[in-house]
Write the structure tokens for this entry.
Amino acid sequence: MKAISLLLLVVLAALAETRNHKRRAKREFLERSKRRWVLNTIEVVEEDPGPFPKVISQMFNDKISQKDGTHRFQLSGMGVTEEPMEVFSIDEDTGMVKALKAIDREAYAFFHIKFDILDKKTKQKIDRELAFDIEIKDINDNPPTFSQSKIEEDVRENMPEGYLPGQLVFTDIDQSNTSNSQITISLISQKPLEPKIDVHQIDGRKAQLTFKGCFDYDKVNKYEVIVQAKDHGTPSLSSTATVLLNIVDANSHPPMFIKKEYRAEIQELTTKNDILRFAVEDLDTPKTPGWRAEYFFINANDEINYKLETDPETNEGILSVIKGKDYERTTLATLQIGVKNEEPLFVCKSFKPSPSATFSDSINATIKVIDVNDPPQFQKDTVIIYRKEEESTGQELFTPKIFDIDSDVNKIRYVLLKDPANWVAIDKKTGKVTTTKTMDRESPFVDSNNIYRIVIGAIDDGEPPATGTCTIEVHLVDINDNKPRLVNNSVILCDNKVNKVMVLAKDADVDPYSGPFTFSFGEGKSQTEQWKLDPAFGEEAGLISLKSLPYGNYSVPLVIQDQQNTAGRQTLEVTVCDCGKGHVCRNNRKAKWTSLGAGGIGIILLGLLLFLLLLFIFFCKYGKNFNHIPSALDEGVQTLIKYNHEGGVSACMSEPHVLLTNGAAQTHASKQISHTAPAITQEMDMYNSGFTSVNSLGTQRYRDSIKSHGGQSMYSTWNSNRTNNYQGTFKYQRTLSLRSQHHLVDQIHRRLNAINENHAGDQSHTYNYEGQGSKCQSLDELSFHNQEDDLQFLNDLGPKFKALGAIRVPEMREKNIQL
């Protein structure tokens, strides 16, 4: 008992603490042990009519006396210093609290205000601040309202009893959990009255209409229902909402045939669409599932000779023949046809639903079969024949057997209707089918099952002629008539990644005349030094490079044998290259080695031919403008000077100046060094450049001589020519010649031997008068750059020249020859 009493005390203490906590959570009131505020109850009614200002309470504090006048009261918070403003005020001397205007509780349910008492002189607080809430007392000043004052819903005619679509949602903004906000929903009126409609309140804020019975679209297709929401306040307030129900037509009327009997005719063994149409009448709304008709056979279509369809526009039934009837078996067919709607039939009687109706209307359609000339009939519509491919021509494939109940079989003629490869011929009288070409199993006209199809026809002499057909399926048996070959004649070997590439082979024949294959190299031992096949047996072989190969193209001859050792020989083109990170050759790679094939040689020849063509065109256009530049001296003269030259000097002419349009610049340079002998060296630099706006013509010549201690001398000559014209070409030529005296003696000796000793005639020359000489200044007045050039070296030509002179001088004197 003591334990139970102790437990009860603990529970009571916890409950007391919980209540105290709730009070503190609502607002913390000022707690004082000795001093306290004293105030009357503050009660404000919503929408108080006044008059205002109206005293609602008075404040007291036991610390001060009302008569000393040294203090003043102060009010702050909502309604005073915070929104909404100017709702409350306080008398500073008496502490009288006043309301200044009416308050709408739905706008402000409470006001949080604070009271203070201050010393008038020091303006310091005499006591702690007092804060509390002023709650506004609710009155029933707001009626319930619907979320929609007017609701419109569609209701199908065949909807079963129960809830109607659409919910009613309502609310009351007065204080919740009071009679002012408690609402009751009710149905005020209904037009028309059948079927019975009611309202069911789901909870305090939702309701839904219900009905019992059924709707009849033909009688009433629109309902108006008024619903009221009323609260329980004093006085009670209410509002209404209008619900409009639109009834949607359903299948409440079955389709009915306009006529009960129909007739049609069709030729035997003939198919035809739309041989008969029949109309129905339906009172439901057109183009709806309750109006659209579905036609069906009740009987007499066991062999599925006929088909029924519905015209979507007219709702008529359409009868078609999809498989012809034989007149010898059937001359008249009677069909019984029924009709129904896409939507099940719904019947409402006196606004009360009836059991599910299964009524459907029906008609009889009589189809007359007209006899026509029947085509000849083959004993078998499809004949299967087996033959080996590539057999000799003239082989008999098939001779048909036929019968015809309407015509004489001896007057039937046969034709080929289908022979895609033109491999066979047919005898028009007997129908015998023979081969005219060898039949290849690998032909594209043979299907994947190795079958070649031939269609023949038999035409009788009836009126009109009729044709019967027969299909001949020739199954071709394979022989080993194809050699194995490579799937791809070229492969890529990515030498930077692998040294092996797989080579796939195939054979158009089938097993056992195809793979697996045996791979080997063709003739030539060089292949085995560079390549290896591993594996060399199977559907594909592995080609392995035995050593690192330069990048380029390689031809590898291969021999591929099938299971019957039939060999095919092909050359595999292998491209060895750097693939980088991919599987194809990189376009911008630098090849380690490039082989020049037939294509490369062809490109070179083509380029050479184009160059010759351009050269020919160039000479044809500019050849006449070129003049040969003769040598200044005869060969062998070298440093010897001719003094008997009597040719006229060139006329003094100024340099031409030509101005042309600027063009693009081109420069060509070449350098040539030739060694004609150990002591003779020639060096030539040539520059051709095309540019614009520059015109210059100039020639520079430089010559010097060097003497050696051995009695021999050497001299060099520099010739520099610059020529540019305004056709966009600049030419610069420099020639360096180094010649030794050592070879000069030999040259003179050869020239002396060439002189004819016997001269029968006068060797003098006659020159024609060529006019006055040039008016240019004498060449003697010209100054030379190198003044040291003279002819002193002729005084000492060396011992060899002296020996030659001693030999030749007497002879020359006898012949009066002078140097």
User: Anything to note?
Assistant: The mean pLDDT is 77. The first strand starts at residue 37 and ends at 39. The chain has five helices and 50 strands.
